[in-house]
Amino acid sequence: MDDEPRLPLARADLEEMIAYALWRRLDLRPRKRSLDDTRIWARAVADHLELCGVTWSRSPPIRPHSMPR
């Protein structure tokens, strides 16, 4: 699977993934913070990753298995 080409991942999608992960962690999130608030944090994380030269991509979808007929 490592030799398969990677698909581009839009920065907005990365920010949404980070924001959702932060929002789900109640122990890390201040009270009464919304998903919109975590998007601001996610944007800052993505900015820092980009500054550090980190690139992101998405693996191709897993092929469904086939059953013999």
Rg over CA atoms: 16 Å
Task: State the helicity in percent bands.
Answer: 40-55%
Mean pLDDT: 80
Number of strands: 2
Order of helices and strands: EHHE
- Structural class comes to mainly alpha
The biggest sheet amounts to: 2 strands, antiparallel
Separation, N- and C-terminal Cα atoms: 26 Å
Low-pLDDT windows of residues:
none
Helical run tally: 2
Strand content: 5-15%
Shape: flat
Strand order of the largest sheet: 1-2
Task: Compile the SSE list and pairings.
Elements: E1 7-8, H1 11-24, H2 35-51, E2 57-58
Written overview of the protein:
This protein has a domain at 7-54. The protein has a two-stranded antiparallel sheet. It is 45% helix and 6% strand. The chain is flat and about 55 Å long. The mean pLDDT is 80. It has helices spanning 11-24, 35-51, and strands at residues 7-8, 57-58. It is mostly helical and 69 residues long. It is built from two helices and two strands, in the order βααβ.
Features:
69 residues; mainly alpha; two-stranded antiparallel sheet; 45% helix; flat; 2 helices
Short description:
This protein has 69 residues and is mainly alpha-helical.
